[in-house]
Design brief:
The structure holds two protein chains of two kinds. Chain A is an all-beta fold. Chain A has strands spanning 3-5, 10-14, 19-21, 24-26, 33-39, 46-52, 60-61, 64-69, 74-79, 88-97, 104-108, 112-117. Chain A is globular and about 50 Å long. The relative contact order of chain A is 0.33. Chain B is mainly beta. Helix content of chain B is 0%, strand content 55%. The chains are: A mainly beta, B mainly beta. The A-B interface holds A 33, 35, 37, 42-47, 50, 91, 95, 98, 101-111 and B 31, 33, 42-43, 45, 48, 50, 55-56, 88, 90, 92, 94, 97-104, 106.
Chain lengths: 118, 110
């Protein structure tokens, strides 16, 4: 069975600095997708960044980038120039197709609570 | 495009009652998934509907059920509520493989 592990329950970073959130996953699949979601105190879950397993190039979205190591089954999120608005719970998620008809399975990690300090 | 909407946003119910939550996906999205989020258990998958058919189901008792209508709107029903059902219920809409979440319904069972 697939699992997603986020080993850092809580982290903090000074405003304008860089922080890296870790995520590892376990799967025997070759084709899958990985995501980072952000859930601020308002509770709205927001998609931050996605990575297709077949792509070797690491995904980047503005200040957010990932370090995808397929062989090591690692998918870390780097936040550059941290801002107060980045304070949130961050979830790593793994997704794969269950069949050819469009059924997918999502598995979420337990989350990392990030606090950006002024 | 408008995002995923969920109604109601907050709900207080008594043990033994039943509740129905509603979710409207992003226009054009045919997949709707439901999740239960609690501080102790994290984000737990309930079920996914695609074109009015339940495609996938998590490990929840039969008290939790759902359905999807022809316009892709989905409802989730919980019967015989228990205190442990108090949680944030999130709905997610999927186009291809990315899920987009609604703001959630906070259910409190007293």
């Amino acid at each position: 069975a697939q699992t997603v592990t986020q080993s850092q329950p809580e982290m903090s970073v000074q405003e304008a600095e860089t922080v890296t959130l870790s995520c590892t996953y376990d799967t025997s699949e070759n084709n899958y997708y990985l995501f980072w979601y952000k859930q601020p105190p308002s509770r709205q879950m927001i998609l931050v960044i996605r990575q297709e397993a077949y792509k070797q190039q690491n995904a980047t979205e503005n200040r957010f980038s990932v370090n995808f190591q397929k062989a090591a089954k690692s998918f870390s999120l780097k936040i550059s120039d941290s801002q107060l608005g980045d304070t949130a719970m961050y979830f790593c998620a793994f997704m794969k197709a269950l069949d050819s008809s469009g059924t997918y399975k999502y598995i979420f990690g337990t989350g990392t609570r990030l606090k950006v300090l002024a | 495009k408008a995002g995923v909407t969920q109604t109601p946003r907050y709900l207080i119910k008594t043990r033994g009652q039943q509740v129905t939550l509603s979710c409207s996906p992003i226009s054009g999205h045919r997949s709707v998934s439901w999740y239960q989020q609690t501080p102790g258990q994290g984000l737990q998958f309930l079920f996914e509907y695609f074109s009015e058919t339940q495609r996938n189901k998590g490990n929840f008792p039969g008290r939790f059920s759902g359905r999807q209508f022809s316009n892709s709107r989905s409802e989730m029903n919980v019967s015989t509520l228990e205190l442990g059902d108090s949680a944030l219920y999130l709905c997610a809409s999927r186009g291809f493989y990315e899920q987009y979440f609604g703001p959630g319904t906070r259910l409190t069972v007293t």
